[in-house]
Amino acid sequence: MALQSLDIARRSATTTEAPQVRNTTEVAKLIDVSACIGCKACQAACMEWNDIRPEVGNNVGIYDNPQDLDDKTWTLMRFSEVEENGKLEWLIRKDGCMHCADPGCLKACPSPGAIIQYSNGIVDFHQENCIGCGYCVTGCPFNVPRISKADSKAYKCSLCSDRVAVGQAPACAKACPTGAIKFGAKEDMVHYAQSRITDLKERGYQNAGLYDPQGVGGTHVVYVLQHADKPSLYAGLPADPQISPLVSLWKGVAKPLAMVALGATALGSLFHYVMKGPNEVSKELEEEMEKEDAK
Amino acid sequence: MIRNPRDLQRYTASERANHWVVGICFILLGLSGLAFFHPAFFPLVHLFGGGVWARILHPWIGVVMALFFLIMFFRFARLNLMGAADWDWLSKVRKMVDGDDHDMPEQGKYNGGQKLLFWGLTLSMVLITVSGVVMWRSWFDFPVELVRLAVVVHAAAAAFMIGLIFVHVYAAIWTRGTIRAMLYGTVTRAWAKQHHRGWYRQITGKN
Predict the structure, then answer these.
(1) Domains annotated on chain B, with CATH
(2) Pairing state of beta strands B8-9 and A75-84?
(3) What pTM, to 2 d.p., does this model score?
């Protein structure tokens, strides 16, 4: 949503400050896994609002449909059957972009303005600036961005930035029939989550908690988990997601280091020539050959 | 300048053509690659028709470069095997760079520096080619951990190689009478005797 330019906090492959004079409220989407019934209304609403229609897939014996996120599936219910405390539990997690405060995709992206982080916390892909390199996939600790086979652009959940821009909640939050998806100021969402967590603890879920991983600076999609001590139960949600140190090395110290080293080599060469002069063939040898030629 | 018929042939036409195919690929890859590496260079993508085109073309140019580099490797590898004289030359290179080449040990077709550069470039090419394939999402889908390693290797090896090429180009400019060897194939006998006396002896039969 380029019209929101004044609300930009960070912009991919840009070394100067983004326009950011306006103060906006940090938003968050709260997904209360304990209240989710797996109806997929959120998936349908996402398709509807964003005009995306994934291919109709095949039933492989599980409820996940489609089986993975793709360029046209920006959110996906992932169903996990686990045994906890001697009981079977059906954990249903709505997967999609977490809108990290420190987004690995944005850090990795080489194309200026292809990935934008608004000051309200939403991380958005601007496909018109996307070059299709897939670096965002490399940067993401949650395995979210997908490259389209049709146009080679990267796609993911926009947190309905277009709706949020005009004061509406994301389509998924609007469609959820149980109130498992809530949207609002992050502060409010965290506050509401605490009441849910207290409730869950009273009902025997001692390890209930909020998933707002600090390794990526916190996220703008947060989960209430019954088993916050074991996030991996929820279809492999990472316990401590972080931007890979390899990506940090590549997009961090490597850039200035390489630039300085190459600049020094180029300038060093020039100044060597200027100060030491060229390496010429000696006069004696040239004369020797001239004499030979004259014979 | 009229070319002396007694000038020495240093490179055949096909060796020269091979070198310049690799050289052109290097320049194109360097420009497009730097564009992806650092935002300061991103405008270079416009030389290739924009960001998407640069992303599409870069790996294909890489394929061409890898193939022609491989051919060049087989042409020159034997001539670049390091010997005792080369290490001796390298140990004295500081004096040479300072402008005094009187004490340098006699060198064959290539001196120790050129040989080391050859192996440095070969190593870079292997690393860049392998990691480049891993990063090529249009055709391959490697595990993300491997891709993360590949992007670092690709960037580091490419920066190293660009540095080596700076040295390569500067050495050719600094040592006068060298570039013509790669342009039309010949060098003067005086040049050969001064810089590569062993090679001069070998092909002229003189001292």
Answers:
(1) 9-204 (1.20.950.20)
(2) unpaired
(3) 0.93
